[in-house]
Amino acid sequence: MITAIRDFLRRVVGAPTQNSLITVIRGNRRPRHRRPSGMKRTAIALVLLLAGCGGQTVTLPLAQPQPTPTPVNLVKDDYKGRFRVMATVLENQAHGPQLCQAVAESLPPQCGGPDIVGWKWDGLPHESVNGTKWGSFILTGTFDGKSFTLTEPAKADDGSFKPFEKKPDFTSPCPGPLKPVDLAKATDDAMQAANALVAGDPDFGGLWIDQTPPPTDLATPANDPAKLVLNIRFTKDLKRHETEIRKVWGGALCLSLARHTEAELQRIQDEVSNEPGMSWTSTDVVTGTVEIGVFVAREGRQRELDTKYGVGLVTLYGTLQPID
To answer: Of 19, 292, 314, 320, which is least surrounded by CB within 10 A?
Structure first.
């Protein structure tokens, strides 16, 4: 199973993969539709660092807290300025040109989104199948909540617009170097056993893999179980969980405290799945947060989410980028 996951990651991002989030494959990052400053934590996570030789366990009092994600493309509630976005535009026999929030990759594709006012296909490279036209373009205009009105002609992607791209950091929060304690248990099977062991635990807050290549051993593949670091979060009882995990896993290990269990994050994700204008939702076990992709991210709605769930726990990611 773990080998298959790594093979998948190689195909997607190239080999060797530097970091990977195993819970993406297990389902923590669950897009609801097809697809893309918070308060610092007041409690610094205590962690257990398992390192050294002879099975020695070193307990560390502090670890670097993970930064809380900040909302993306957040605008004031009364913002009337222009937005810019790179997106698929599609027109078919059922509707005119629309700015796609989500695209069904059929042939021809299907999508849904606001109508575009002032659209012209003339001079724009696009595809056409069975009466459907579509293409990916850079659009600039205003949005009234229902329609996107162009304020300048659309254009093909020329590299001038750089949309937000999240770059997750899977680096272990435990200070290094982190080392195996039992190489006989630093295997794919052992990792799979550890994953199965913790997945159903009521304290479980998430799991990911840090595959940063050791600077002293660049020749060994980073996804070698003897080289990677298995990161697991629990809401309590780290020492007890360490004892249980070490029965099956002998590779490098970092345990840290989570504010919320994985089940709690997924429950919140389910609650916000009907967010107006939502195009996707996901959980991020590295930061212990829930993310919502929306067409326009507004300050008022972010404040409501902060009030209901706590500052920074649920973060809005706006598709439209304000430029005024």
So the answer is: 19
